Inverse folding.
């Protein structure tokens, strides 16, 4: 039960965040940080259970008809993520408190941030794949609000939408994959799917399932070719980048790959796809990272590179791959979160984010600098920081894999060389070198902003020195969860003098060299720019712009605003739909009965026809109105001649009212000045003639086609006995179909009220002016 | 007789649509009215014509005679006539209002909402 409460507490609290923000003012962030802090402590209590490779499963029926349960499972992997999410969440809330102090919409920010944190916990603690998917989409949604937090900025709007579209696309693909998976295996819980891994691996649909699920993971974790959304998402306020785009949300793709790896790893498809995508991502982003000069962009690309490394390690799999992935992930969460916060602090306190315009800041912000430098040392993989262990275990994994070991090791070295360079760029360029003038006078940040980086930086050192603190309690159980069996853990600082240490030395030396000669190397690599400018971002833009222009052109085509053309199209489509049916019935009627007509009927019909022709031919409005009246009275006469006295009565009254109404409005009505262009006229005549002919033939066909038995006899039979009325038409209106008449009266009143309101409506000043101008 | 009425209905339909296709709003209203008359007659004729047997039960009878005209289409048309009047009255006022506010009687100039 505690697990469920821990997931949903964030959702509950987020609704109260604006209120707390209003009441507590500057204390709000600090108060809200108590939630993730207490959740973090709560999750730490699971360590004894998990370190024995145990797990705890809770399940509540949710949509039993679809076999979807609200089930939560906590094992090593979930626990590691939950602790990272809550631990980082605590510092991020504190950091936001300082970074966004006094922002008008701070309350809204906390709502999205808390909702995001709760969704993240939901993803990592759920056991049902569809529940995971639901929380997964919630993280996309809340991150949309967080990236677009500065919603007045167009670039923020675009970046938020881009992130949502890319991850949303992946999410949908993943949903399709999960549905396929649940259909083919008959299970929807991860814990039972793992037990059926071998039957899934032999299924013919393995490849489609795998590709669809991986699309979700790759888009979320910004793997090539979907990596482009992450650097753009740096439009978000820095606390968001530090939280979502370095330590948590982008790792959720990694989490899911790790989660399903006991199901799929061991198949060739998994190994090839995951490893290749990871390696390509590493190479591209390593290059892209070192050519940036904006602090947050450098960090964003290096994050993509780190995500590539984790993907690669999950592809390699086995106990070495899993241990390295978890160790690297944990180390990365610590140092990258810290570096993002440091980058935000520098931006916040100096007003400058370009590393070429920064320098010598360690004198002004010593505490931030300490945290930042320690994080950077960890990132560069220097002994004795946690990053060193992560890098060593990466090399161990690539060196011991059976396929393409040399190639993968080489790629890993290149990525780590880039990390060394990035570390230098992020801390040496900013905190050392000569001082530069910045838009704001630099000074130390408030404690809320330096506490996070300092703590994370120090943790990187402590855990590096004493890896045993997390080894068997967190890393081991998490790695066991990834490979699906308990592992024999090697997670220590010193391995002795071996090949990995040699590679580390090579990495560091090449890193330093590259840092010094960066400009020269980049200019040598200049031709690459041309290729990269045709990247997937171009394709994305093309797709979006294409869709928008398609939508606008079809709207222009269909919704042009010309009323007469709407009517024309309606009439043409209507005729085209009706004519084929009429033609198929051409045989059913004949013209035999034409002479069955009395003289008075001939006169009435002539009256109607002359009136109608007059109505649409005369040049005077008055004559047209009178002609229309003639048609109306003629129709009334037809009703009299053919046994419909009630209709005739109504028709005469209404027609009189109609003519009176037209005459009343006559004074206010425009004249006939507008004439139609001749080419349109021919078109109009053709369509009108066809439409009229359709109506005439329809009448003749309808006379001879009886689709259903008439219900007229019912009314005749019961009109007197049940409703006590002799006039059957009246009885139908007020009794048998009384509610229809009530509806009719309502329509009449609404039309009356509408007409009255329009007549009485006072024009606004603007309308008056516009009217006068016309 | 039905054939002659059918042709009349065709004329009302064609003429009504032709007027509705004009740009002038007065013609549009007149066209709608013509089409309305045509439709009432269409239902009336298509249901079958009966001379001099109105659907009224004789004072002495207990149920309707077999020969009586079909009362159902008549009830439908009665409703249609009244609704048609409401429609005409409303669009007349609406168009008059549009004419005063926009200063034009040309529907081609009334496209602001769709652009």
């Amino acid at each position: 039960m505690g697990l469920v409460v821990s997931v949903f507490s964030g959702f509950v609290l987020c609704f109260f965040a604006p209120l707390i923000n209003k009441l507590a003012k500057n204390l709000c962030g600090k108060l809200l940080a108590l939630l993730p802090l207490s959740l973090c402590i709560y999750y730490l209590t699971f360590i004894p259970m998990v370190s024995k490779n145990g797990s705890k499963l809770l399940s509540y029926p949710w949509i039993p008809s679809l076999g979807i349960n609200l089930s939560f499972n906590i094992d090593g992997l979930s626990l590691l993520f939950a602790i990272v999410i809550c631990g980082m969440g605590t510092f991020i809330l504190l950091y936001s408190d300082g970074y966004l102090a006094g922002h008008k919409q701070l309350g809204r920010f906390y709502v999205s941030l808390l909702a995001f944190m709760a969704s993240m916990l939901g993803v990592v603690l759920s056991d049902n794949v569809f529940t995971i998917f639901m929380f997964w989409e919630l993280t996309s949604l809340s991150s949309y609000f967080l990236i677009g937090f500065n919603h007045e900025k167009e670039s923020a709007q675009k970046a938020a939408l881009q992130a949502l579209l890319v991850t949303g696309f992946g999410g949908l693909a993943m949903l399709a994959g999960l549905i396929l998976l649940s259909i083919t295996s008959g299970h929807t819980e991860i814990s039972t799917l793992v037990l059926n891994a071998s039957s899934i691996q032999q299924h013919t649909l393995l490849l489609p399932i795998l590709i669809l699920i991986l699309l979700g993971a790759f888009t979320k974790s910004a793997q090539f070719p979907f990596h482009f959304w992450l650097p753009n998402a740096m439009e978000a306020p820095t606390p968001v980048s530090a939280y979502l785009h370095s330590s948590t949300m982008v790792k959720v793709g990694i989490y899911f790959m790790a989660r399903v790896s006991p199901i799929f790893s061991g198949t060739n498809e998994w190994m090839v796809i995951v490893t290749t995508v990871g390696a390509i991502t590493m190479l591209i982003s390593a290059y892209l990272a070192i050519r940036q000069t904006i602090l947050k962009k450098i960090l964003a690309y290096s994050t993509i590179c780190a995500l590539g490394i984790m993907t690669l390690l999950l592809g390699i799999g086995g106990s070495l791959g899993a241990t390295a992935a978890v160790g690297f992930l944990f180390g990365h969460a610590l140092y990258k979160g810290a570096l993002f916060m440091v980058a935000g602090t520098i931006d916040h306190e100096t007003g400058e984010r370009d590393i070429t315009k920064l320098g010598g800041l360690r004198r002004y912000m010593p505490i931030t600098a300490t945290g930042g430098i320690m994080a950077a040392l960890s990132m560069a993989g220097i002994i004795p920081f946690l990053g060193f262990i992560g890098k060593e275990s990466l090399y161990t994994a690539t060196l011991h894999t059976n396929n393409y070991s040399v190639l993968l090791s080489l790629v890993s070295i290149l990525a780590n060389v880039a990390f060394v360079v990035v570390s230098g760029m992020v801390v040496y360029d900013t905190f050392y070198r000569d001082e530069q003038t910045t838009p704001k006078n630099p000074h130390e940040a408030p404690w809320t902003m330096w506490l996070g980086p300092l703590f994370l930086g120090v943790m990187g050192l402590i855990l590096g020195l004493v890896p045993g603190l997390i080894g068997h309690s967190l890393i081991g159980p998490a790695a066991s969860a990834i490979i699906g069996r308990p592992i024999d853990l090697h997670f220590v600082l010193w391995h002795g003098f071996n090949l990995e240490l040699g590679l580390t030395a090579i990495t560091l030396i090449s890193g330093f060299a590259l840092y010094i000669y960066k400009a020269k190397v980049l200019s040598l690599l200049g031709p690459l720019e041309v290729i990269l400018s045709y990247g997937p971002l171009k394709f994305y833009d093309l797709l979006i712009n294409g869709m928008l222009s398609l939508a606008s052109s079809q709207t222009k085509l269909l919704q042009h605003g010309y009323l007469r053309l709407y009517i024309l199209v309606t009439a043409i489509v209507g005729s085209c739909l009706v004519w084929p049916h009429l033609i198929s019935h051409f045989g059913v009627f004949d013209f035999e009965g034409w002479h069955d007509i009395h003289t008075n009927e001939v006169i009435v019909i002539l009256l109607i026809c002359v009136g109608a022709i007059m109505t649409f031919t005369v040049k005077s409005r008055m004559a047209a109105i009178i002609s229309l009246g003639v048609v109306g009275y003629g129709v009334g006469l037809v009703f009299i001649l053919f046994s419909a006295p009630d209709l005739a009565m109504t028709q005469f009254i209404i027609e009189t009212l109609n003519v009176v109404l037209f005459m009343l409005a006559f004074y206010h009505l425009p004249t006939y000045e507008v004439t139609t262009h001749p080419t349109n006229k021919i078109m109009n005549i053709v369509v009108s003639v066809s439409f009229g002919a359709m109506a005439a033939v329809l009448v003749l066909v309808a006379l001879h086609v009886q689709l259903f038995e008439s219900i007229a006899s019912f009314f005749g039979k019961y009109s007197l006995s049940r409703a006590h009325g002799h006039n059957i038409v009246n009885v139908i209106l007020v009794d048998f179909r009384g509610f229809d008449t009530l509806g009719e009266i309502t329509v009449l009143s609404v039309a009356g009220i509408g007409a009255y309101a329009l007549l009485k409506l006072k024009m606004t000043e603007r309308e008056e002016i516009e009217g006068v101008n016309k | 007789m039905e054939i002659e009425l059918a042709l009349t209905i065709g004329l009302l339909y064609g003429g009504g649509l032709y007027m509705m296709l004009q740009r002038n709003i007065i013609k549009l209203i007149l066209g709608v009215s013509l089409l309305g008359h045509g439709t009432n007659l269409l239902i009336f004729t298509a249901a079958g014509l009966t001379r001099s047997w109105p659907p009224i039960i004789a004072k002495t009878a207990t149920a309707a005679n077999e020969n009586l005209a079909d009362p159902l289409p008549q009830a439908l048309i009665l409703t249609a006539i009244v609704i048609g009047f409401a429609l005409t009255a409303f669009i007349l006022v609406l168009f008059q209002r549009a004419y005063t506010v926009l200063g034009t009687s040309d529907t081609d100039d009334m496209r602001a909402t769709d652009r």
